Amino acid sequence: MDLNEYVGLFLDESMEHLQAINTSLLDFEQRMDDEAVIDQIFRSAHTLKGMAGTMGYDAIADLTHEMESALDLVRSKKQPATSELIDVLFVAAEQLETMVEDISRGGKGKLDVTETVNRLKRFIQPSDVQVETNVLPTTQQNFECDVYSKAVVQQSIAAGYQAYVLSVELSADVILKAARVYMVFDRLQSLGDVILSNPTSDDLEQEHFDTSFEILFVTQSEKETIREAVEAVSEVANVSIVPFETTSEAEVATSTLQQEPVTEEIQKEATSTTSEPMDVTAPVASKTIRVNLERIDRLMNLFEEFIIDRGRLERIAAEVGSPELTDTVERIKRGTNELQSLVLTLRMMPIEQVFNRFPRMVRSVSKDVGKHIKLHITGAETELDRTVIDEIGDPLVHLIRNAIDHGIENKADRILAGKPVEGNLSLRAYHSGNRVFIEIEDDGAGINHERVTRIAIEKGLITEEEAALLTIEEASMLLFAPGFSTAETVTDLSGRGVGLDVVKSKIESLGGEVFVETRRGEGTIFRISLPLTLSIISAMLVELGKETYAIPLTAIIETTSLRSSSILQAHREKVFDFRGQLVPLISLNEVYGLPQHEAEAYSVVVVRSGEKLAGLIVSELIGQQEIVMKPLGSYLEGIRAISGATILGDGQVALIIDSNALLRK
Predict the structure, then answer these.
(1) Is pLDDT above 90 for 604?
(2) What's the predicted TM-score (pTM) here?
(3) Could you tell me the pLDDT band of residue 126, with boundaries at 50, 70 and 90?
(4) C-alpha pair distances (Å), 544 with each of 457, 551, 584, 637
(5) Can you tell me the distance from the alpha carbon of 278 to that of 266, in angstroms, rounded to the nearest whole number?
């Protein structure tokens, strides 16, 4: 059987289980005696082990097997949890992520995990030897059904469910038996809940059985429905289904079926002290499906072409002047606007996928620098375009590490400042208008503006005269100057000559902005503003000479007409009075090397980048239009202040102006 077709499913489900492990490990560290947290980690590791074993990823299976064994000792109270165990579990989780990511890139998921496995075995060793001496071959065992499993079955029947024993026989020439077992269990889980199995799940996963196995199963489905679901699995030769009676405790206690992990819902009901009947939710038709991102991208590309053709159709309708054609185009426009909203929604993904990596990172980095730091995450459900999601991770990593290293004080300084020893780092995301804001806030010492300014002068970034004129906000933004660093020593976190300017450049390349707020002794906030999507945007079309350019509306404050007599000179630059503020003027013809012409009046587009304003002089304003952003490609990369291109309705190509780059010094 070709397992390649299951790789995508394996990757999706593996990442979900790894995230569950990471989240639960952080809770486990705080509450080592929380059985629910231990069970969650155990279940995720157990499921991941089974999937990896079926797919042939032995390194993942081996590592998760040892994790499962160690956790089983803790949850059975045979050994207490230790900080050493938690540390090695975090290492194991990181290695599992590395192997899964390697598989996603086409690799084999190979990694030397010997040291981690040995560390887990050292924790397991005292009890592991005893366990192995009690294990007999499957054919010699007579396992009892424990009180918990008995309670599950009895409460299920009391709630109107049926309990069945399924005997499944695979074909004599079956290949990859474990894969078939996995598919059988997957089908059954959609109809009810598997309580026990014989042989055990471990033996089934390791193919330590002939061709048959038994399953204790509770469900509200009919026997024929169950039979059809199981028989639909390839290489299943025969299925026998008989009722599992629990009329006496002796019958349950003498069951030869062995325990299989059950769902969290059943576990809660089985351990409940109330007299209410067990509420096992009946299978519900799935309301979501997994769609390959490549298909969504193809849909988006097709729709982008449709938007271009729509613009062409609007232009033709305006030239022809036919009322019927104009009316039809308007109806198409309304329909495509709604369709556009839907298609863009398909590209939206929760920023949780980025945020989820940070709790473990904060734990690791804070331990490295000897600080106690607690991470608070809010707004993880906030959605962003997938393109932005893919790119925003690294800048956030840099800002968070900067907050840990530079922002939050060490323990001694916090005590002297009258603060709790534990520092707080907050990561927030929220929508505002057509933008998404991400904030990284720490309760550290704040930014020392005098020190920042002094370093900037020493590095030749500004002069002493310029420093004297800086506002607090402007001094804070010096942190983003190329080559700026306040690190006194070179560490793994900072001081290598690559500062926050990399963060600023990346954010601005995404059409975003970054701001800083700080209070001495209280902390600092880095605030990032990003567009919801990068593919289809609203823009103002302008003419420069005979060429058409586009300026994104998100950067525009307003458009105006400026008489030549209103143009002033300040510091050898052209400026004009905009609402009582002197704002520099930039001639786009001059920027892009186009012919310039003197005129009595000029069309000006006033744009903003952070706190900076500028007036862009253009030849003519054409009007607002929705455009499809296309990358320039490697051949045209590096053109100043151009972020992409678009195809207009008449087939012409218009370059998209990057106002952030124009206003950047």
Answers:
(1) yes
(2) 0.55
(3) low
(4) 39, 12, 19, 21
(5) 8
